[in-house]
Amino acid sequence: MLQLGGTNFHKSQIFQYCSDVPIVTETIKTNVGGQPLPDGEPTIHPSVYTKSAVNRFPAWVVFDKQVLSFEAYFQSTVQEMKDCAYQIRKCKIFFHLEDGTIMVVEPKERNSGIPQGTLMHRQRIRMPAPRNDIFYDIIDLNIGKEVELYGRVFKIVNCDHYTRVFLNRLGISVPDPIQCPEDPYLKIREREKNQLQAKKPTCTQHSLSKFLAHDRQVLRFWGYWDDRHSPNGLLHRLRLQFYLSDDTVDIKEETPESSGLEMGPIFLKRSKLPKNFTTVGLPGDDFGNPMTVLNVLGQSIRKGHYIYDSLASGRDKGSTYEYITDKDLGIGTVLDIYGRKVVLTSCDPFTQDYYRSKYGLDNFNPAHDPSLEEEDKYNRESAGDRELPPYNGYGSYEDSAQNCRSFILVPPKSDFAKFLEKDSFILRFESKMLSSIPSNADRRFLICYYLCDNTVAIFEQVSANSGYYGGRFFARKKVIKPGENAYSSKPPEYYLAKDFYIGGVVIINDFHFLITNADEYALSYMESNCNEFSKSNIRLIMDKVKTALQPMYKEFIGKYICIDPDQTGVISYHVFWRTIKDVLGDKITDHEILTLARAYPGKVECRESLSLDHLRPLVHTEMHRYIFHGLERMSEDLLSRDRSRQGWLPIKEIWACLRASRVPLLPEVLEVVVDKLDRHPTDEHLYSYPQLLKFLDPKNTPPPMVNPMSPEWLNGSEQKAKGKFK
Q1: Of 88, 458, 532, 559, whose CB count within 10 A is highest?
Q2: pLDDT tens track for 184-208
Q3: Model confidence at 72, in pLDDT bands (50, 70, 90)?
Q4: Helices (H) and strands (E) in the chain, counts
Q5: What distances in angstroms separate CA 184 from CA 295, 437, 665, 714, one per listed residue?
Q6: Is 226 helix (H, G, I), strand (E, B) or coil?
Q7: Which domains are delineated in the chain?
Q8: Measured at the alpha carbon of residue 598, what is the angle toward residues 592 and 604, in degrees to the nearest 5?
Q9: Using CA atoms in the order 156, 157, 161, 166, what is the torsion angle rounded to 10 degrees?
């Protein structure tokens, strides 16, 4: 039916292209004749939805790729078993929401003997008579219901989580899962199997049953055949595979790369292996192979006729052959492979589990394998571990060693993985020079250790009117430890990161440097990687302290209880350092004492009576310790929350920004700091966040941080090191 006066007669649609992208647009709903419906509402509503909940888009758009999954079972008749009339077959019912189609699938089981897989392809299924005029819908599928699909009754026992949630949102109650009944057919089969094994324990297995029980199960061994005693002989590395399904063996040779061997990988094709080999028998002598072929007519291959010798007419009844089985294999076993002595040295994990469960063996240590020794020797020679001539001093040791290993001049290979992992990881230490010259004793240096390539660089910090230029004092390169012979064939030992610690002395180009301090990043990195840095391992340090205090614990408590007469639980770092030094002496280093102080910091009680000036040292000490650099991002977040740009925000917004920025402060300290901020003159719920940013910014009047490095401690360590140097 056409509309008079109309100019557009195309079918209505809800898809259009916008910037070459298909999108769903709102269009006026029309009926079959093309006339628009009033208010654009459809005329038909599904029964499970209310009129107001109907989606304006079609179901194949809304429910695309959404499927309800149910677990069910049905009974199948068994004809060939007298004590069982049926068996239980489990399956899954899939209901596709986009078009209401149903698909029934039975999971496949290996060697089940029945056709499994897709029982019913995806389609709309009608209900049984007399209601065969309608199709199955969502409300017809639920746990506990029985549905008849093409004459076969399915009992639904369970569903997945998505199906349960979907039905519950529709207002359909989903019962609890139902236990699936036991399969009487499998129960009888299991009982007969146990009875058969109990009555006939020594019965030989049929070849087909053995194949079904051990199909694709292979015992894998590694070994070697030493043929070096013969002219131009080699040491062959072999891999032996024993197939449990038919007791056959095949052997493959594993030739190394660039070996120059052109032989094939097959050392022995898959066949049964005689246990005691003497000579190759005649056709028909092999009792293990009943398929002996006889030529009954003709001599040519094309016109001849052949049959199997099923009567064993050509065999010698007195000759018998014994073949290798799984009990004849093991680590250290010597096999006679047609005159070649093959020694088994190791096996794979599956083989170990097989022998452990069947024969109760536990020792699977690899046997001596000379092929591995040759391979290791070849790898060492290829890697350049052969003895080199002494180093002559030109270039670096690695560069000279690389030139000795190859005729082509190539640079030495660096550890690229370590470079990617620890690039820009630098440990910085403050140090001073130990010298009998007074002018050198006052010089300060910064030692930088680069973790990516274990190199060291030294920079001098110059004070006014010192007479020194300052800047770079030692170029970046690896530093050899003192006492090492640099001009030898063996590589010298270099300074590593663990050799740099506070209180230690490093010797670089005959200059003695005493390390007096380290930056926060170096201390944090060494503590987080305490397995590599023993001076920052708090467990090792505590064990050392406990061992020293164990015989004198009571005397130590009685002597040093006067250190804290008010029993506040907090002492200064200088007193703590002096106390530990009196007990352990030279057994503990200054870096270990600093690690103890950082592991058990003193807790400053944060009271509301404290002002912001009193809180600044505590706050900035914690921020410096945890290397907090998120102040700029926090200021951007606060500005984005303040849309009026007046500098005032409620306390909830400030707390949310502080938590998002991960400020390394305790909640009690943050609560007092926020409470001390200025408030809006008219609204007490608004706080000044610029004042908070100014308080947290260390550039604005930096406060004196709580530094455990005491000047008296530094002077004491310097005098002690100078005494050793003299």
Answers
A1: 458
A2: 888 887 777 666 554 434 444 556 7
A3: very high
A4: 20, 24
A5: 52, 99, 67, 86
A6: strand
A7: 15-61 (no CATH), 67-186 (2.30.29.170), 218-276+322-370 (2.30.29.170), 283-320 (no CATH), 416-528 (2.30.29.170), 537-599 (no CATH), 603-726 (no CATH)
A8: 145
A9: 40
